[in-house]
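FAQ

Q: What does a record look like?
A: Structure on top, sequence underneath. For example:
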Protein backbone atom coordinates (compact mmCIF):
# COMPACT_ATOMS: atom_id res chain seq x y z
CA UNK A 1 0.00 0.00 0.00
CA UNK A 2 1.49 3.30 -1.14
CA UNK A 3 1.07 6.95 -0.26
CA UNK A 4 0.95 9.62 -2.95
CA UNK A 5 1.03 13.41 -3.13
CA UNK A 6 -0.71 15.25 -5.98
CA UNK A 7 0.12 18.84 -6.87
CA UNK A 8 -2.27 20.45 -9.34
CA UNK A 9 -5.31 18.40 -8.30
CA UNK A 10 -7.73 21.15 -9.33
CA UNK A 11 -6.37 21.30 -12.90
CA UNK A 12 -7.70 19.44 -15.90
CA UNK A 13 -5.21 16.56 -15.82
CA UNK A 14 -4.66 16.69 -12.06
CA UNK A 15 -8.34 16.35 -11.18
CA UNK A 16 -8.63 13.19 -13.27
CA UNK A 17 -5.37 11.89 -11.83
CA UNK A 18 -6.55 12.45 -8.26
CA UNK A 19 -9.68 10.37 -8.90
CA UNK A 20 -7.65 7.63 -10.57
CA UNK A 21 -5.32 7.34 -7.58
CA UNK A 22 -8.15 7.40 -5.07
CA UNK A 23 -9.82 4.56 -6.95
CA UNK A 24 -6.64 2.49 -7.09
CA UNK A 25 -6.34 -0.15 -4.32
CA UNK A 26 -2.52 0.21 -4.43
CA UNK A 27 -2.83 3.50 -2.51
CA UNK A 28 -3.81 3.78 1.13
CA UNK A 29 -3.54 7.56 1.24
CA UNK A 30 -3.52 10.39 -1.30
CA UNK A 31 -2.54 13.92 -0.28
CA UNK A 32 -3.77 16.75 -2.51
CA UNK A 33 -2.06 20.12 -2.16
CA UNK A 34 -4.41 22.81 -3.45
CA UNK A 35 -4.98 26.53 -3.11
CA UNK A 36 -8.66 26.17 -2.23
CA UNK A 37 -10.82 23.36 -0.79
CA UNK A 38 -11.78 20.54 -3.13
CA UNK A 39 -15.39 19.68 -3.90
CA UNK A 40 -14.48 16.07 -3.25
CA UNK A 41 -14.33 13.84 -0.21
CA UNK A 42 -12.90 10.35 0.07
CA UNK A 43 -11.74 8.12 2.90
CA UNK A 44 -8.22 8.03 1.45
CA UNK A 45 -7.98 11.75 0.71
CA UNK A 46 -6.11 14.33 2.78
CA UNK A 47 -6.41 17.89 1.49
CA UNK A 48 -3.77 20.47 2.35
CA UNK A 49 -4.30 24.13 1.50
CA UNK A 50 -1.11 25.75 0.30
CA UNK A 51 0.82 27.38 -2.50
CA UNK A 52 4.45 28.02 -3.42
CA UNK A 53 5.03 30.34 -0.44
CA UNK A 54 3.44 27.95 2.07
CA UNK A 55 5.08 24.69 0.97
CA UNK A 56 8.01 24.84 3.44
CA UNK A 57 5.54 25.08 6.33
CA UNK A 58 3.67 22.03 5.01
CA UNK A 59 6.83 19.93 4.71
CA UNK A 60 6.17 17.69 7.76
CA UNK A 61 2.87 16.60 6.19
CA UNK A 62 4.26 15.99 2.69
CA UNK A 63 5.42 12.42 3.27
CA UNK A 64 4.70 9.85 0.58
CA UNK A 65 6.22 7.20 -1.66
CA UNK A 66 5.34 9.00 -4.90
CA UNK A 67 4.78 12.60 -5.92
CA UNK A 68 2.64 13.56 -8.92
CA UNK A 69 3.09 17.10 -10.29
CA UNK A 70 0.58 18.46 -12.80
CA UNK A 71 1.04 22.15 -12.06
CA UNK A 72 0.84 24.86 -14.66
CA UNK A 73 -0.81 28.03 -15.82
CA UNK A 74 -1.48 29.81 -19.12
CA UNK A 75 -0.21 33.10 -20.50
CA UNK A 76 -3.83 34.31 -20.51
CA UNK A 77 -4.18 33.79 -16.75
CA UNK A 78 -0.58 34.73 -15.92
CA UNK A 79 0.76 37.21 -18.50
CA UNK A 80 3.70 38.28 -16.32
CA UNK A 81 6.66 36.04 -17.19
CA UNK A 82 8.15 36.14 -13.69
CA UNK A 83 4.90 34.95 -12.10
CA UNK A 84 4.42 32.37 -14.86
CA UNK A 85 7.91 30.99 -14.16
CA UNK A 86 7.16 30.68 -10.45
CA UNK A 87 4.10 28.54 -11.16
CA UNK A 88 5.50 26.44 -13.99
CA UNK A 89 9.07 26.03 -12.69
CA UNK A 90 9.69 27.11 -9.10
CA UNK A 91 6.60 25.49 -7.58
CA UNK A 92 7.08 22.05 -9.22
CA UNK A 93 10.80 21.98 -8.36
CA UNK A 94 10.19 22.93 -4.71
CA UNK A 95 7.37 20.37 -4.47
CA UNK A 96 9.68 17.66 -5.79
CA UNK A 97 12.55 18.76 -3.50
CA UNK A 98 10.38 18.54 -0.39
CA UNK A 99 8.90 15.18 -1.36
CA UNK A 100 12.37 13.77 -2.09
CA UNK A 101 13.72 15.05 1.24
CA UNK A 102 10.81 13.30 2.95
CA UNK A 103 11.61 9.96 1.34
CA UNK A 104 9.63 9.87 -1.92
CA UNK A 105 11.22 7.47 -4.39
CA UNK A 106 9.28 8.36 -7.56
CA UNK A 107 8.23 11.58 -9.25
CA UNK A 108 5.71 11.96 -12.09
CA UNK A 109 5.94 15.32 -13.86
CA UNK A 110 3.70 16.75 -16.59
CA UNK A 111 5.46 19.16 -18.94
CA UNK A 112 4.87 19.57 -22.69
CA UNK A 113 6.01 18.28 -26.06
CA UNK A 114 9.15 20.04 -27.22
CA UNK A 115 10.40 20.89 -23.71
CA UNK A 116 13.94 22.16 -24.12
CA UNK A 117 16.00 24.08 -21.56
CA UNK A 118 18.12 25.52 -24.37
CA UNK A 119 15.24 26.95 -26.40
CA UNK A 120 14.84 30.65 -27.12
CA UNK A 121 11.06 30.25 -26.68
CA UNK A 122 9.98 31.07 -23.14
CA UNK A 123 7.30 28.37 -22.86
CA UNK A 124 9.34 25.38 -24.03
CA UNK A 125 12.45 26.67 -22.22
CA UNK A 126 10.52 26.86 -18.94
CA UNK A 127 9.23 23.30 -19.42
CA UNK A 128 12.75 22.14 -20.24
CA UNK A 129 14.22 23.85 -17.19
CA UNK A 130 11.70 22.27 -14.83
CA UNK A 131 12.52 18.86 -16.31
CA UNK A 132 16.25 19.52 -15.91
CA UNK A 133 15.94 20.61 -12.30
CA UNK A 134 13.63 17.78 -11.25
CA UNK A 135 15.95 15.25 -12.92
CA UNK A 136 18.84 16.74 -10.93
CA UNK A 137 17.09 15.69 -7.71
CA UNK A 138 17.95 12.10 -8.60
CA UNK A 139 14.78 10.24 -7.63
CA UNK A 140 14.91 6.45 -7.90
CA UNK A 141 12.33 6.80 -10.70
CA UNK A 142 11.55 9.95 -12.70
CA UNK A 143 8.62 9.86 -15.14
CA UNK A 144 8.17 12.86 -17.46
CA UNK A 145 4.99 13.21 -19.51
CA UNK A 146 5.08 15.50 -22.55
CA UNK A 147 1.58 15.87 -23.97
CA UNK A 148 0.88 17.96 -27.05
CA UNK A 149 -2.70 19.23 -27.47
CA UNK A 150 -4.74 18.36 -24.36
CA UNK A 151 -8.19 17.45 -25.57
CA UNK A 152 -11.47 17.08 -23.70
CA UNK A 153 -14.21 19.16 -22.13
CA UNK A 154 -13.08 21.61 -19.47
CA UNK A 155 -15.26 23.25 -16.84
CA UNK A 156 -13.90 26.65 -17.84
CA UNK A 157 -15.27 28.20 -21.00
CA UNK A 158 -12.44 28.64 -23.53
CA UNK A 159 -13.92 29.38 -26.98
CA UNK A 160 -10.54 29.84 -28.70
CA UNK A 161 -9.15 26.63 -27.29
CA UNK A 162 -12.33 24.75 -28.20
CA UNK A 163 -11.85 25.81 -31.82
CA UNK A 164 -8.21 24.65 -31.81
CA UNK A 165 -9.25 21.28 -30.34
CA UNK A 166 -11.85 20.89 -33.08
CA UNK A 167 -9.14 21.43 -35.70
CA UNK A 168 -6.81 19.02 -33.87
CA UNK A 169 -9.48 16.31 -33.97
CA UNK A 170 -9.34 16.54 -37.75
CA UNK A 171 -5.55 16.51 -38.13
CA UNK A 172 -4.85 14.02 -35.31
CA UNK A 173 -5.07 10.91 -37.55
CA UNK A 174 -2.63 12.53 -40.00
CA UNK A 175 0.10 12.88 -37.38
CA UNK A 176 1.95 9.60 -37.84
CA UNK A 177 5.54 8.39 -37.73
CA UNK A 178 8.10 10.98 -36.55
CA UNK A 179 5.38 13.56 -35.82
CA UNK A 180 3.03 11.32 -33.83
CA UNK A 181 4.26 12.97 -30.61
CA UNK A 182 2.15 15.98 -31.61
CA UNK A 183 -1.09 14.01 -31.53
CA UNK A 184 -3.59 15.16 -28.93
CA UNK A 185 -4.85 13.16 -25.98
CA UNK A 186 -7.80 13.75 -23.68
CA UNK A 187 -6.86 15.06 -20.24
CA UNK A 188 -8.49 12.02 -18.64
CA UNK A 189 -6.45 9.71 -20.88
CA UNK A 190 -3.22 11.43 -19.88
CA UNK A 191 -4.17 11.02 -16.23
CA UNK A 192 -4.87 7.30 -16.73
CA UNK A 193 -1.54 6.85 -18.48
CA UNK A 194 0.26 8.50 -15.54
CA UNK A 195 -1.55 6.29 -13.04
CA UNK A 196 -0.69 3.19 -15.10
CA UNK A 197 2.97 4.17 -15.30
CA UNK A 198 3.10 4.05 -11.50
CA UNK A 199 2.12 0.38 -11.49
CA UNK A 200 5.31 -0.90 -13.14
CA UNK A 201 8.44 1.13 -12.47
CA UNK A 202 11.78 -0.27 -13.60
CA UNK A 203 13.67 2.49 -15.41
CA UNK A 204 15.34 5.33 -13.56
CA UNK A 205 14.20 7.92 -16.12
CA UNK A 206 11.35 7.55 -18.60
CA UNK A 207 9.94 10.20 -20.95
CA UNK A 208 6.47 9.70 -22.40
CA UNK A 209 5.19 11.29 -25.60
CA UNK A 210 1.91 10.42 -27.31
CA UNK A 211 3.06 6.98 -28.45
CA UNK A 212 4.25 5.90 -25.01
CA UNK A 213 1.12 7.21 -23.30
CA UNK A 214 -1.11 5.52 -25.87
CA UNK A 215 0.75 2.23 -25.26
CA UNK A 216 0.06 2.51 -21.54
CA UNK A 217 -3.63 3.02 -22.24
CA UNK A 218 -3.71 -0.12 -24.38
CA UNK A 219 -1.89 -2.24 -21.79
Amino acid sequence: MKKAIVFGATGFIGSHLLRALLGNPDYERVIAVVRKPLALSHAKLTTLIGDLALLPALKPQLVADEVFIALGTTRKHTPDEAEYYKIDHDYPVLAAEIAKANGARSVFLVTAVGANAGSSLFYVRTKGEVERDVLALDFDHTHIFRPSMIMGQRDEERPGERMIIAVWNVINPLLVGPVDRYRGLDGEEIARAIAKAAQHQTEKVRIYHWNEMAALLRA
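Q: Is there anything notable about this one?
A: The chain has a mean pLDDT of 91.
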